[in-house]
Amino acid sequence: MTEPVATVTAARRPRPWTLFVLVPVFAYAPMVAIHASCITGLGGWSIAGVELFVLLWLAALVALPITAVCAWFGPAGRCVLAAGAGLAIAFVPALYLGSAARTWGFHLAAERAKPLVAAVEAYVRDHGAPPDDLPSLSPRYLARMPSGLPPLELQSGRDVLQPPSGDRWVLRASVPTAILGFETFCYASDGDFRGLGGHVERIGDWAIVSD
After folding, report:
1. Last residue of a domain, one of 82, 111, 140
2. Is the full-model pTM beyond 0.90?
3. Same domain, 129 and 183
């Protein structure tokens, strides 16, 4: 005997709680992965554009009242409401998870950069001032640049303080998290990040400085 079409359709329709969980997982997993990509040390230092995921969250928020009305008209409407609610609720936890993973990636980069910092310090002890650039450290002070680092530049003198202060130097790389972002990953030889930007997020001896 042939099973009624309505019964088959209902059996194949996903349950609302399944959509509540799976839709945000698939929607926000790329955002978390982009934030976490710097953990590998192979890239992902600049993630400008990732903030566009907020548009998905805003769309879910705007659509919630509409989907709430649709939920009164049957199972399909309840499924749409569940998916939208999942997207609206899961954005902040996903963003927090991605940001935590990105911070961990920079902690790892700070560890990888220790030989570079030691090499600059040794150069300053011998010459009384930092080198003009990082290639000047090779081969005497640094056999090769450590891998797994963002594109660091060495700055000193007027580049890092007004007025210039003796042998103070800074290692700095641009690591924006937004299209209009100006975050930098910094190491200051005197541990003072004032004057390098506005907000400072310390990462060991390093910091993420935002203008």
Report:
1. 111
2. no
3. yes
